[in-house]
Amino acid sequence: MAELRRRAVAGIPRREAGLVVCANLVRIFQTEGVEVQALQGLDLTVAEGEMIAVVGASGSGKSTLLGILSGQDVPTAGGAEVAGHDLLAMKRHERLRYRRRTVGFVLQQTSRNLLPYLSAAENVMLPMTYAGIRRSRRRARAEELLDLLSVGHCRDRTPDTLSGGEQQRVAIGVANANEPRVLFADEPTGQLDTATSDEVFAALRRANEELGVTVVVVTHDALVSEQVQRTVRIRDGRTSTEVLRQVSTGEDGVEVHTAEEYAVLDRSGRLQLPGEFTERLHLRKRVRLVLESDHVGVWPDEAARRARADAQDAAGGGPEH
Ligand SMILES: Nc1ncnc2c1ncn2[C@@H]1O[C@H](COP(=O)(O)OP(=O)(O)OP(=O)(O)O)[C@@H](O)[C@H]1O
Fold it and tell me: What region holds the ABC transporter domain (predicted)?
């Protein structure tokens, strides 16, 4: 009953399509009496098998979101479900199991993803030990994963003898060791040069395509965000826009790549206009909405625009453009 009430308050439908579903997600941090709202009612749905990028300015809430989805942190309010696990209701034991089995995680700092005194293969086998998988199976799966990620040649080497890109590809192997449903990667190419980033991204894509794991990558790297079908932008703790990319083949047989930007409409019908739109047209405080048969027009507030023009005239500033 309490669960139903919470869902009603959070506005979460009982079942919603998607392996990852965040609804009206809120995370407030309290430090020394100061409250920071890192997530302010974030909505996000990721379908099973998808590979998406999450982008946004520093401090917009990306790492907070990943911390919650990977089971390391607990939201203050709202709803978050991953592969049927309710992340707000999970008890300690289920949380531990969830972190070991349901999700995998790759961090930006190459050195934090691997244990320095274990070989690449032993690093990949370690999570399987915790999951109780027998030794022969552990070794075989570790080798399969390292081969798939093109780091089979690194299996007996310790991380200090591997390049940054090799370490991150081994880390993707570790994150996939227990056949997780979702792989979260927080700036996995942040410390790498372009060519190496490309190899790491290719390994993530291979994990997505060959292992079927759903992938959510937080990135500042345009090379990564422009190569996935969907990029979600977070602004002020909410999803604000999405870019959807498609590849189609024209009549002449040439591949055509298209990318379209969409604003995200939340459950209450709110949407956030991109900053460059509001600045270009001086949209502030209120706008006029006009419902047309197939779209909604958003117009500057005429009275405010006139007042601004008058003020500029009075100041001798000339007409506004
Ligand atoms: N443990 C914490 N205690 C207090 N405030 C926090 C904590 N973690 C994050 N914050 C604050 O929450 C907001 C969102 O931070 P978050 O790290 O999620 O942003 P981000 O988009 O990942 O940024 P970056 O790209 O710089 O990593 C920031 O204002 C940050 O200072």
Answer: 23-261
